[in-house]
Amino acid sequence: MANEEFALIAQLQKDLGHVGKGVRLGIGDDAAWLDTEGRTLVSSMDTLVAGRHFFADVHPADLGWKALAVNLSDLAAMGAIPRWCLLSLALPPLAEGYGQWVQDFAAGWLALAERADVALVGGDTVATDGPLTLSITALGVVEQGVMRRDAASVGDLIWVTGTLGDAAAALDRAFVSRGLPGWALNCSETCAQALENRRLRPQPRLDFARAAVAAGVTCALDCSDGFLADLGHILQASGLRARVDLEHLPLSSALRECIDSDLQRLLRWPLTGGDDYELIFCAPPSLTGTLMALATNCALPITAVGEVLPADPHAAEDVDLYWQGQSLSLPMNRGHQHVF
């Protein structure tokens, strides 16, 4: 394996090891040498395992994009500027060798890395008898403060970028197509493909997040485990409650075709489904005009879906959920489980 591993590293260096901003020494030595230029460093790390976080038959280009995207989304949630990544690959044997797989993976990774201006500066590779596993560490810098999940305040509006539920609906479709338990989609092939694209190629909201921090937003996180579960993280960390109006959750036209006023599907996909990688953020009403202007500049829709409420020690739940003015019970399953 040693020679094959060296060849793999050399190919990754060739395909992805381009020098980026602040890189004094990148791939090729025992460690990277990076210059933060006097800014504060923000870091995040995710591990993705075949059969748990993605299907083993995913195209490597889609995997390359998504593996980077989910980490950049964490940086976006903090309002950070992405700079560098470290990648660890545990690869099972491939009958045809690693060459084409790495080339395709690199193409997907690079398509997003160039857009986000982030450089791969190091990592590790290892052969394994287990499932394909990727670990990515993302490093970014901030020019001022960061957004945090414990910074919500009473009276803040609860906002969501983009739309919710597309990836969860597409995942259900993928389950059903593989003979696994899931909810069938009743929509056109065009809409189904649009949902699948959102599942495989999420868009980290980096530009809007940086602008939001500069505008004074202090509370956010990325929506990866499902809106209700991730909002719960904010409320728990901030010691507060919230009201959410379900009819305000933003839906794509493709998902609207699948839901067709079915409340149970609305609860399943936009409310509790995962893998959206949109931002949930809280901000005082006084920032509404500024935020709407920023969203227009970024060509990104944002939607206010609820309000942060004072803590209530007697309340059984931390979210009051309403549908067209009527109170609803919260779903038993409040978030997405990354198990295939």
From TrEMBL:
**Reaction(s) this enzyme catalyzes, per UniProt:** thiamine phosphate + ATP = thiamine diphosphate + ADP
Which UniProt keyword terms apply here?
ATP-binding, Kinase, Magnesium, Metal-binding, Nucleotide-binding, Thiamine biosynthesis, Transferase
What organism does the record attribute this protein to?
Acidithiobacillus marinus
**Gene3D superfamilies per the record?**
PurM-like C-terminal domain, PurM-like, N-terminal domain
User: Its Gene Ontology biological processes?
Assistant: thiamine biosynthetic process; thiamine diphosphate biosynthetic process
Q: Provide the organism lineage as a comma list.
A: Bacteria, Pseudomonadati, Pseudomonadota, Acidithiobacillia, Acidithiobacillales
Kindly list the GO molecular function terms attached to this UniProt entry.
Answer: ATP binding; magnesium ion binding; thiamine-phosphate kinase activity
The record's family statement is:
Belongs to the thiamine-monophosphate kinase family.
| Other information | Reaction mechanism of ThiL seems to utilize a direct, inline transfer of the gamma-phosphate of ATP to TMP rather than a phosphorylated enzyme intermediate.
- What Enzyme Commission number(s) does the record list for this chain? 2.7.4.16
Supply the InterPro entries for this chain. PurM-like_C_dom, PurM-like_C_sf, PurM-like_N, PurM-like_N_sf, ThiL-like
Residues of the PurM-like C-terminal domain: 154-311
Describe the location of the PurM-like N-terminal domain by residue ranges.
28-142
Tell me the PANTHER family matching this sequence. Answer: THIAMINE-MONOPHOSPHATE KINASE
Q: What name appears for this protein in its UniProt entry?
A: Thiamine-monophosphate kinase
Protein purpose: Catalyzes the ATP-dependent phosphorylation of thiamine-monophosphate (TMP) to form thiamine-pyrophosphate (TPP), the active form of vitamin B1.
